[in-house]
Amino acid sequence: MKYHLIICLLFILSVKNLNAQSKSKPFEGVPGWLETQEKRLAWFQEARFGVFIHWGLYSAAGGVFKGETYRQHYAEWIQTWGKIPSKQYTENLKPKFTLENFDPKQWAKLVKKSGAKYMVLTSRHHEGFSLFNSNQPFALHNEVTGTANLSPDGRDLYREIMDAFQQEGLKTGAYYSLLDWQHPDSYEAFQLNPNPTGHVPDHELYKNYMYGQIKELANNYGRLDVLWADFSSKEHEGESWGTRRILTDLIKWQPNILINNRFWNGLENKNGDIGTPEKYVPPTGISGTNWEVNHTMNESYGYSSQDQNWKSFPQIMRLLVETVSKGGNFLLNVGPDGSGKIPDQADNILERVGKWMS
Questions:
Q1: At what angle do helices 344-357 and 104-113 cross, to 10 degrees?
Q2: Which contacts of 285-289 are long-range, i.e. CB under 8 A and separated by 24 or more positions?
């Protein structure tokens, strides 16, 4: 019995040791991040309120594809709700991404008026299309959808939006999806798309693609205050994305940048600079790290034509005040439609928040 107990204790200690070894070092041990963290976070700790903007090809669907309505809460996931191949998805929605009401200066003025101090824009969501003009070969031309760049010829929608917000004096961040339902070498390759040639995904090629796009975001558009990655799992986190290489160069390209914790698994993990609870306020906050609640005005992040479950102004303010009172920032989402119009309900909420803030 004595020896059995000793063996059990040794086993428990060895498991604990293995778990300790498997945890990521802060910022993967890359120099420059921990040493500058306090300075880099100074503005974020004062800001307290920001606006999230989810806008992409999914916005043209608005939760409806070929007459079928998908009532799931996250309308930006409609491609996977409907199991729609990327080629069919693109051919149907690109003509509906019209931009006829797109006015980034008006967006920026509204957000500034709301009292927000920063904005985070979806530079690329899970469907694999980027608002910025990427020069990566797959983005320029591919056999899946033709191109992974969403901006019309002669325009760069990401640049137009970032310029407008920076001119209003707001900090700006880029949401960047680590998932890609379109790329044949991503971890999600062929979950939605056919694979007639039996292509075997080369994840190293995909990591190079991501690295190249993050490099473009960090070097081609002036100041980048936040890189908001999304999202990891137990199977794919940290070095699965090539984080050591990304972080080694990112801090050189943008010495004042912040990164969230979603290169790693778990919304409250303490890697990176910012914890990211989604659609909930932690009951006692998150001790030992900076954090930011991202929340929606209705249920969906991307525009949804049938989601009319809008939160009242008091509900929004309760979430904001509760978050800030517990030491967090509040990132409130807006989802413009495929024409670029911010829904009237969202416009009204931001107007009222601005009056309260002032």
A1: 40
A2: 285/326, 285/327, 285/328, 286/327, 286/328
Give pLDDT, residue 214. 99
Confidence class of residue 16 from pLDDT cuts 50, 70 and 90? very low
Over the stretch 22-38, which tens digit does the pLDDT of each residue have? Answer: 467 999 999 999 999 99
Q: Could you read off the pLDDT of 230-278 as tens digits, one per residue?
A: 999 999 999 999 999 999 999 999 999 999 999 999 999 999 999 999 9
Contact 297, 334 (CB under 8 A): yes
CA dist 336 and 131 (Å) reads 14
- The answer for residues whose C-beta is within 8 angstroms of residue 39's C-beta and 6 or more apart is 256
Check pLDDT > 90 for residue 281: yes
For 152, which DSSP code?
P
Q: Residue 10: is it exposed, middle or buried by C-beta count within 10 angstroms (0-12/13-18/19+)?
A: exposed
Residue 51 host element (H or E): strand 49-53
What residue type is assigned to position 61 of the chain?
A
Angle at 274 between CA 189 and CA 249, to 5 degrees: 65
Q: What is the pLDDT of residue 263?
A: 98
18: how many CB neighbours lie within 10 A of its CB?
A: 9
Whole-prediction pTM value?
Answer: 0.93
CA distances (Å), origin 243, targets 25, 53, 205, 218, 341: 12, 25, 14, 15, 36
Residue pair 66/79 in contact (Cβ under 8 Å)? The answer is no
Q: Read out DSSP for 282-349?
A: -BTB-TTSEEEEEE-SSS-SS--SS---PPPHHHHHHHHHHHHHTT-EEEEEE---TTSPPPHHHHHH
Q: Residue count of the chain, please give it.
A: 358
Residues 146 and 90: beta-carbon distance below 8 Å: yes
- Helices H, strands E: what count in the chain? 12, 10
* Section 133-137 average pLDDT: 98
